């Protein structure tokens, strides 16, 4: 079953008199409960695409359907409400509130959606266990490592129980062991809670976690998975057979 569909999406940024075409005729279907990666080099359009899917930005043209709703026709206020109810976005500059502890940061987010105090506290405790930060719940962000911070950010977003979670390059600047730990938590969330996940990366090592790989370059997405690989990285064909065996 499809959660969302992008049809002929274009994004053009205007900078004074000049224009930057960031996304060109994007067609993309994301299935409910699945784990998709947007994979491409720097400047390829990953963030532009995630900004549109997260409803933070509107496309210049094209249609965006989410759970049967035509979001391209929504006004800003309705789009903001829709995002609050359905989408968690861990953008690359998403940060914790510096003067609050890990617990308080997560509780603050939980209170935005859960008015009942006991239920909200239970949710915070549960998510703290999930991201393995229970023992660090009283620490402030500046006392955490970058990987611990990233896990806390995931908890802040997940505690609101969004249908879709987007992560823009969640493992950038992390060493490969820590990056794997972060990806494993995201996989666990996807498997246990059925949350649909889309994450972007330029790291070849990370795409192995995804169910579906969508290559992007110069604002265009590849027609299929095979093209994503051959086109962008010139990998040997046997690599595909390995990847395709998963499906
Ligand atoms: N707000 C903006 N105004 C003008 N141009 C922009 C804006 N945001 C992005 N661009 C341009 O659009 C293109 C795609 O950028 P985008 O940030 O989406 O790529 P990206 O794949 O996320 O890159 P990176 O890996 O460096 O984060 C680039 O040419 C970029 O310079
Ligand atoms: Mg980016």
UniProtKB/TrEMBL annotation:
SMART domains: AAA. Coiled coil: none annotated. InterPro entries: AAA+_ATPase (IPR003593), ABC_transporter-like_ATP-bd (IPR003439), ABC_transpr_LolD-like (IPR015854), MacB-like_ATP-bd (IPR017911), P-loop_NTPase (IPR027417). Residues 4-243 form the ABC transporter domain. PROSITE patterns: ABC_TRANSPORTER_2. It comes from the Bacteria. Gene3D superfamilies: P-loop containing nucleotide triphosphate hydrolases. GO terms for molecular function: ATP binding; ATP hydrolysis activity; transmembrane transporter activity. GO terms for cellular component: plasma membrane. Keywords: ATP-binding, Nucleotide-binding, Transport. This is ATP-binding cassette domain-containing protein. It comes from Iocasia fonsfrigidae.
């Amino acid at each position: 079953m499809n959660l969302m569909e992008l049809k002929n999406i274009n994004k053009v940024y205007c900078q004074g008199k000049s224009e930057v075409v960031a996304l060109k005729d994007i067609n993309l279907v994301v299935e409910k409960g699945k784990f998709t990666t947007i994979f491409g080099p720097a400047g390829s359009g990953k963030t532009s695409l995630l900004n549109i899917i997260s409803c933070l930005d509107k496309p210049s043209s094209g249609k965006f359907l989410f759970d049967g709703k035509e979001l391209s026709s929504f006004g800003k206020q309705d789009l903001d409400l829709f995002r609050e109810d359905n989408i968690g976005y861990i953008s690359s500059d998403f940060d914790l509130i510096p003067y609050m502890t890990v617990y308080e940061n997560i509780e603050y987010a939980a209170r935005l959606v859960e008015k009942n105090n006991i239920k909200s506290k239970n949710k915070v405790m549960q998510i703290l266990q999930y991201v393995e930060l229970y023992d660090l719940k009283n620490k402030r962000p500046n006392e955490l490592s970058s990987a611990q911070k990233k896990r806390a950010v995931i908890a802040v977003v997940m505690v609101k129980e969004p249908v879709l979670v987007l992560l823009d390059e969640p493992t950038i600047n992390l060493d490969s062991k820590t990056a794997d730990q972060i990806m494993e938590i995201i996989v666990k969330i996807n498997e246990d809670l059925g949350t649909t996940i889309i994450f972007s990366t330029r790291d070849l090592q990370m795409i192995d976690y995804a169910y579906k790989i969508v290559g992007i370059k110069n604002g265009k997405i590849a027609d299929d998975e095979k093209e994503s690989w051959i086109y962008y990285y010139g990998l040997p064909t046997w690599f595909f057979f390995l990847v395709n065996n998963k499906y």
